[in-house]
């Protein structure tokens, strides 16, 4: 009965405010915003080949453009992550939407590496701010459903962005402009609707103090966090490689310049991740973590076999299995950490977790971009993948020893 009452309360919170959206409509608008922010973040990936051809930059520069986004996102999370607790969800979200519109305009006008770096920098900041406020607002409205949307919507968003941009590159004229024109229209409409969102928190003092970046791991969570670090690093390093160099890799393996293949490879990874979350989110986290490490290792081995043999079916099959391990392992990592912190400690704990995750997302991809210039994309992918296989295997053995 208590659970029923809490769910019912979540359906009507916040109370209907004059001129504002009802709670249910607000929830789904927020969910659509999560999807679109992440779609916009992955949309440039299928375009990198065109940018390289027209601007003549190296694979290292490509991964630098990609990594700027991750570093700016981290900055947005660390500096502005708690601001909406003090000034309200809606104003912070509207600020993030204005920044996102600015980033899309920069992409639309980009004709040099400097423009691309500026666009990714602004987009990363916007996404970092939006990630924090959207996650909190969804949980404010419906805790159980909000947690699920926070896990799955980003995966679907990245798939939509990668596939949609790849389709426009293949079928439409001027794709480096059209992709961002479409996104500008969508984000502008969402921004107009977001003005009517109800606010779920009462403004309180401490806004300026909240801007001070803080990283803290509660003592009870430290051992678990360090234990999760190897498999979490392997998972996010794989994601960073696919989103930066994945389209270049699939072009090398298949010999085809069809951009749909690059978009499909990214979509395969993230959609498999979403399936892994939905499939195993109710299973005990320790068992899921061990299974995810195994799935990641085996999936990577199949992927590397596909790269070595130029077999596109093995490349995609391995990506499916690795993606399942990525999604399930990420969800299980969060489920392992959250109960180990008190409510007032969770924000700092999750900030620390995401800092480690996004560093794994960006720094190895930068190293891979440097290696491509010396060894080529296929040799780099084989070496990179073998390191992640080793890391996943060590993580699995370590977790098996710790758990009965």
What can you tell me about this protein's structure?
With 404 residues, this protein is mainly α. The protein is built from 16 helices and no strands. The longest helix has 36 residues, at 219-254. The protein is globular. It starts with a helix and ends with a helix.
What does the secondary structure layout of this molecule look like, with pairings?
Layout: H1 2-12, H2 23-42, H3 48-55, H4 59-80, H5 84-87, H6 89-109, H7 113-141, H8 143-171, H9 175-194, H10 207-210, H11 219-254, H12 259-280, H13 285-309, H14 312-337, H15 343-375, H16 377-402
Helix pairs in contact: 2-7, 2-8, 2-9, 4-7, 4-11, 4-15, 6-7, 6-9, 7-8, 8-9, 8-12, 11-12, 11-13, 11-14, 11-15, 11-16, 12-14, 13-14, 13-16, 15-16
